[in-house]
Amino acid sequence: MAERPTLDSVHLLHCFDLLMVECSVTRAAARLNVSQAAMSHALSRLRRLFGDPLLIKRSGGMAPTSRGIDLHVQVLGLLHGIDRLFEEPQPFTPLQTRMRFTVMLPEFIEHCLFPRLMPRLELEAPDIEVEFRSPDPVHAFEYLEHGVVDLRLGLWPTKSRGLRYKMLSRECLVCIVRHGHPLARTALSAEGFFNAKHVRIYRDRTSVSMNAVDQASAALGHKLQVVVRVQNTYGLAEVVSHSSLIGIVTERLARNLSAQHSLQIMPLPLHIPEQRIALYWHERTHGEAPHRWFRSVITDILCGV
């Protein structure tokens, strides 16, 4: 039975390459800086391994066998492949990179992120594609773990093994009403807040922030009068700006919406803990240059808004 490759097989393949090139044990040994005896031993091992003489004596030296010539082509391919494994990676250049990132995030962060992210990507990395997905807390960890999603932005109730995160901001909730709303003439009281009618974005599951509002209201013996449910933030802003309904959003989103619609921001007359917004990613992408760059872009934008 032929000898199987061992841990020093790479060294043995280098010996084989030099033996085929030099057709001389002495010259091959000199080029590899080993003794002639060590190279002779390597040739013996190679002959057992491949079941062929590989080099045969001829007048004036040695010549490779047909089997040796065929094997040499394959060995060169292996050695080149091994060399590539240890090559320094090419420096990451966003401008010349084609990649796709998938990000899971709530809609209110989209409104804050998009206006500054898109111009920056067009300028710095025009060939990078980004897919944004709605939050799915139930499957978020699974998606990050299996690479379905690269990043998650938002709240995460519990820490998970294998994930990294960076705290980006603390968000507080506020009320938005149309300009000229009767409740906007003075500070919004709890009584006025609970007596008013509200609009809310429809979700399959109550969001963390709205759940906190409902719990705080229930603790005071009240329940909000939600009379309209809309599909998204745009719909909420339109309803509020054209009615007497109250909407509840994060302060950052309220500032963005008030710049686009005729809205007024009012403090929420409830004690709601600040919502901590973080960026989450899996350990497997932590050290990859493109991911590091993309995370830094998002962090710069959301921490600077």
Explain briefly what this protein structure is:
This protein is an alpha/beta fold and 305 residues long. Helix content is 44%, strand content 21%.
How do the strands and helices of this protein lay out in sequence?
Blueprint: H1 9-22, H2 25-32, H3 36-50, E1 55-58, E2 61-64, H4 66-85, E3 100-104, H5 107-124, E4 129-133, H6 140-145, E5 151-154, E6 163-171, E7 173-178, H7 190-195, E8 197-201, H8 208-219, E9 225-230, H9 233-241, E10 247-250, H10 251-260, E11 263-267, E12 275-282, H11 289-304
Parallel strand pairs: 3-4, 3-5, 8-9
Antiparallel strand pairs: 1-2, 5-12, 6-12, 7-10, 7-11
Helix pairs in contact: 1-2, 1-3, 1-4, 2-3, 5-11
CATH domain fold name of the largest domain: D-Maltodextrin-Binding Protein, domain 2
Specify the CATH homologous superfamily of the largest domain: Periplasmic binding protein-like II
State mean pLDDT (0 to 100 scale).
87
- Give the biggest beta sheet: 5 strands, mixed
Give the total of beta strands.
12
Oligomer: single chain
Can you put this structure into words, describing what you see?
- The protein has 305 residues and is of the alpha/beta class.
- 44% of the residues lie in helices and 21% in strands.
- It has three domains: 9-85, Arc Repressor Mutant, subunit A (Orthogonal Bundle); 94-162 and 277-304, 3-Layer(aba) Sandwich (D-Maltodextrin-Binding Protein, domain 2); 173-273, Periplasmic binding protein-like II (D-Maltodextrin-Binding Protein, domain 2), CATH 3.40.190.
- The chain has helices spanning 9-22, 25-32, 36-50, 66-85, 107-124, 140-145, 190-195, 208-219, 233-241, 251-260, 289-304, and strands at 55-58, 61-64, 100-104, 129-133, 151-154, 163-171, 173-178, 197-201, 225-230, 247-250, 263-267, 275-282.
- A five-stranded mixed sheet has the order 4-3-5-12-6. Strands 10-7-11 form a three-stranded antiparallel sheet, with helices on one face. A two-stranded antiparallel ribbon has the order 1-2.
- β1 and β2 (61-64) form a beta hairpin.
- Residues 1-7 have low confidence and may be disordered.
